[in-house]
Amino acid sequence: MGVLSLPVMDNYYLLAYRHYSICRKSFQDTIWKKGNAMKISDNGLNLIKKFEGCRLTAYQDAVGVWTIGYGTTNADKAITGISIRQGLRISQETADEWLRQSVDKKYGPKVDKYSAYNWNQNEFDALVSFAYNIGSIDGLTASGSRSKEEIADKIQAYNKAGGKVLSGLIRRRQ
After folding, report:
1. pTM of the full structure
2. Which one from 52, 93, 123, 149 is the annotated catalytic residue?
3. I need a surface site. Which of 3, 75, 103, 114 has the fewest CB within 10 A?
């Protein structure tokens, strides 16, 4: 298929197309990241809200990390712009906004980088929830080398915080 048979393309797509025969995967990744990235659904966002719960006053989580809203910590300072510390209070609107930004800017892309799995929406939502909870899915997917079936089996093992099995994590992984 030649360039002429393709729909009108901007320079970004045209450049990517020219390299297609050299590196097909790179072309697909470029197109995917340009405009077709999956986004968490409302059901997925509600799943995170259900499991995380929302606290509008900062508290220390099970391992002593200062946390607020739907599990926002200082690891999300690029999104919050402030330090989570004792005595901090936020509004419900702020908690909702920080969750949305965290999912869209940080955790969704961590799942989306494994788009070769062709996640369906439910899988994507569940994995974004998982990434939001532990920070990544790299270990779960073994950096993309596990099958979907292996990932589904392996997820059950992520049930500890600070070395202790937590019933809430067991429930969340089922």
Report:
1. 0.70
2. 52
3. 3
